[in-house]
Amino acid sequence: MCVAAPLPILDITAGPMPMGHVELNGVPFSCCFAYVPEAQVGDYVLVNNGFAIEIIDPISAAESLAVFAELGDQPIGGVLG
């Protein structure tokens, strides 16, 4: 089972394959934005296996992150843990 985590976009580099960084617990991770070319810095996106797959509103992102935090050290699809 895979879980997509809602993460904020730190930066995006334009190009044939738009790449950038998202942040998880203060740690930046590389991310591909090819599936959401309309995404902008500051948006929250669902990230799965290094790909942003959907833009999500900040309230929904906060609710999801709160649920993940309740799970503590449980590994979740290799994304959180």
Structural overview:
This protein is of the alpha+beta class and 81 residues long. The protein has a single domain (5-70), classed as SH3 type barrels. Helices cover 16% and strands 40% of the residues. It has one helix and five strands; from the N terminus they run βββββα. The chain has one helix spanning 58-70; strands at 5-13, 19-24, 27-32, 44-48, 51-56. The protein has a five-stranded antiparallel β-sheet, with helices on one face. It starts with a strand and ends in an 11-residue tail after the last helix. Mean pLDDT is 85; it is low at 74-81.
List the helices and strands and how they pair.
Layout: E1 5-13, E2 19-24, E3 27-32, E4 44-48, E5 51-56, H1 58-70
Antiparallel strand pairs: 1-2, 1-4, 2-3, 4-5
Q: Which regions contain 5 or more consecutive residues with pLDDT less than 50?
A: 74-81
Question: In angstroms, what separates the terminal alpha carbons?
Answer: 15 Å
Biggest sheet statistics: 5 strands, antiparallel
The number of E-state strands comes to 5
Mean pLDDT score: 85
Structural class: alpha+beta
Helix content: 10-25%
Q: Could you say how many structural domains there are in total?
A: 1
Q: What's the architecture in CATH terms?
A: Roll
Give the percentage of residues in beta strands: 35-45%
Shape: globular
Determine the oligomeric state from the structure. single chain
CATH class call: Mainly Beta
Q: Would you give the CATH topology?
A: SH3 type barrels
Radius of gyration, taken over Cα atoms and rounded to an integer in Å: 12 Å
**Alpha plus pi helix count:** 1
Order of strands, widest sheet:
3-2-1-4-5
Order of helices and strands: EEEEEH
